[in-house]
Write a structure and sequence with these properties.
Largest sheet of chain A: none
Structural class of chain A: mainly alpha
Number of strands of chain A: 0
Strand content of chain B: 25-35%
Shape of chain A: globular
Oligomer: heterodimer
Number of helices of chain B: 9
Number of helices of chain A: 9
Order of helices and strands of chain B: EEEHEEEEHEHHHEHEHEEHH
CATH topology of chain A: MetI-like fold
CATH architecture of chain A: Orthogonal Bundle
CATH class of chain A: Mainly Alpha
Low-confidence stretches of chain B: none
Strand order of the largest sheet of chain B: 8-9-10-3-11-12
Structural class of chain B: alpha/beta
Low-confidence stretches of chain A: none
Distance between the termini of chain B: 36 Å
Number of domains of chain A: 1
Bound molecules: adenosine-5'-triphosphate, magnesium ion
Shape of chain B: globular
Chain lengths: 222, 259
């Protein structure tokens, strides 16, 4: 067995590409999470509303997404939509669409649980001072729910960030894809994958730390 | 005698099959403090919640300042008003809950301000001024920037009272507002309520604090099994209980009402 000779100069030369990949992955995760929150919120309210026929389509959407491998969804949306006559989405847009739908299903469940676990007393107090139904949602239910679900939303952001590595399958130049490219050009297997892993780890850690600060800032809801 | 500020006429309320209120008639006049007493399950909370339109009821009418609230007659049929309309009526009646129910994401001051700005439509400067003066009045000027979790139960309840009365409601309903408190915190809340009563606030108070009831209430109403069994001035009701149920109920507060 020949001792492996580490050569990190390859990494330094490609650091820009790595960092771009990392930033792209982060951006994709954040955008998908934000759009997913909008979908999730709408779905959570649809499922808890009194309008009964809204319930089952949302249920179907959530169950479908949560029980299908994400990689399959990514490939299906990227290669399948054009087959069905939907053109004009590039790789990144197609991936954001997929990850948004994916995040939306998970956020729906997060928000639904948040709404269900919110003590009814806050809604009652909001009623008692005379707030209208819309005002109760706007000034009491949503802000309290936001604080209750913040830890779950944070965890979802970190999972989504790691899931962006699957975009490599459709050649979106995020970190995993970049690492594969650099590896193919340089054959520095260990250096490349160690670098990618460390960058994922460091970024996840920084996000988690940042979100912990946000959670602390909003910790008034116990 | 002037017209009553609040008049409940023959209120009936059922949960599923069980009738919980079996025809409540009650009149409350401007500036009166009416104490509602009765054993657990007699329907006191349910009645207060009907008055504040937090519950719907199947029969009867509630008038505030001579105008029916909560329902209207349309083509001879009784109809619940829209939630928007009901909300506006609720703003004229304050409610203080046993469990405080402060908004957890707002400071004491913000809790008091919310209704003033969003319901009363006050500018935030004016609302803040009023919130501060009420927090002052309930002895919490030092605590106005605290969140509920940073306040003791007694302090939270005083904020809740400030939140209700700052809206300048026509009357305020208190549902056992001291029962969730440690004994040493009860007095500070009762003190605030006594102060409000003295200032002429119209109040309906559900309470097991019989000394408070005796000293502060103008009228005591004893409920049992969803009905009003006896009512009158405290001295009269406590001295001459007309029913066995009331005698048994008062007996629990031994020694308080003569031998
Ligand atoms: N949401 C509900 N669903 C079904 N039954 C209810 C509900 N709320 C109250 N009840 C019933 O209505 C009756 C009256 O309850 P209520 O809470 O008004 O009594 P109370 O006089 O306030 O008692 P307490 O002194 O224990 O607070 C009770 O028998 C109770 O079990
Ligand atoms: Mg009660």
């Amino acid at each position: 067995m020949i001792a492996y000779q580490f050569n990190w100069s390859v990494i330094w030369r490609n650091m820009d590409a790595f960092l771009h990949g990392l930033a792209l992955g982060l951006g994709l995760a954040v955008v998908s999470l934000l759009l997913g929150c909008v979908i999730g919120l709408a779905c959570a309210f649809a499922r808890t509303s009194r309008i009964k026929w809204l319930d089952w389509p949302v249920w179907l959407y959530v169950e479908f997404i949560r029980n299908t491998p994400l990689l399959l969804l990514i490939i299906f949306v990227y290669f399948g939509l054009p087959q069905m006559g939907v053109y004009g989405l590039d790789k990144i847009e197609s991936f954001v669409l997929t990850l948004t739908l994916y995040a939306g299903a998970y956020m729906c469940e997060v928000f639904r649980t948040g709404l269900a676990s919110m003590p009814n007393q806050y809604r009652e107090a909001a009623k008692a001072i005379g707030l209208t139904p819309w005002q109760r949602q706007r000034y009491v239910v949503l802000p309290v729910m936001f604080r209750i679900t913040l830890p779950a939303v944070s965890n979802n952001l970190i999972s989504l960030f790691k899931d962006t590595s699957l975009a490599a399958a459709i050649a979106v130049p995020e970190l995993t894809f970049t690492a594969r490219q650099v590896n193919a050009n340089t054959f520095r297997v260990f250096e490349v994958w160690i670098t990618a892993s460390v960058l994922y780890l460091a970024a996840s850690y920084v996000i988690a730390f940042g979100l912990r600060q946000v959670e602390r800032r909003y910790a008034s809801v116990r | 005698m002037p017209a009553p500020l609040l008049r409940a006429i023959d209120i009936h309320k059922s949960y599923d099959q069980t009738e919980v209120l079996k025809g409540i008639d009650l009149e409350v006049y401007q500036g009166q403090v009416v104490a509602l007493i009765g054993s657990s399950g007699s329907g006191k909370t349910t009645f207060l919640r009907c008055v504040n339109l937090l519950e719907e009821y199947q029969q009867g009418e509630i008038d505030l300042d001579g105008q029916p609230i909560g329902y209207r007659m349309a083509n001879g049929r009784r109809q619940r008003l829209s939630e928007r309309a009901v909300s506006a009526q609720r703003a004229r009646i304050g409610f203080v809950f046993q469990s405080f129910n402060l908004f957890p994401h707002m400071t004491a001051e913000q809790n008091v301000m919310l209704g003033l700005t969003k319901v009363r439509g006050m500018a935030s400067g004016e609302a803040r001024e009023r919130a501060r003066s009420w927090l002052d009045r309930v002895g919490l000027s030092q605590r106005r920037d605290h969140y509920p979790y940073q306040l003791s139960g007694g302090q939270q309840q005083r904020v809740a009272i400030a939140r209700a009365v700052a809206m300048e409601p026509r009357l305020v309903l208190f549902d056992e507002v001291t029962s969730a408190l440690d004994p040493e915190l009860v007095a500070e809340v009762l003190g605030v309520m006594q102060d409000l009563a003295k200032s002429g606030m119209t109040m309906i108070v559900v309470s097991h604090e019989m000394l408070f009831v005796r000293d502060v209430a103008d009228r005591v109403v004893f409920m049992d099994g969803g009905r009003i069994v006896q009512e009158g001035p405290p001295a009269q009701v406590f001295k001459n209980p007309e029913s066995e149920r009331l005698r048994a109920f008062l007996g629990r507060f031994h020694g308080l009402f003569g031998a």
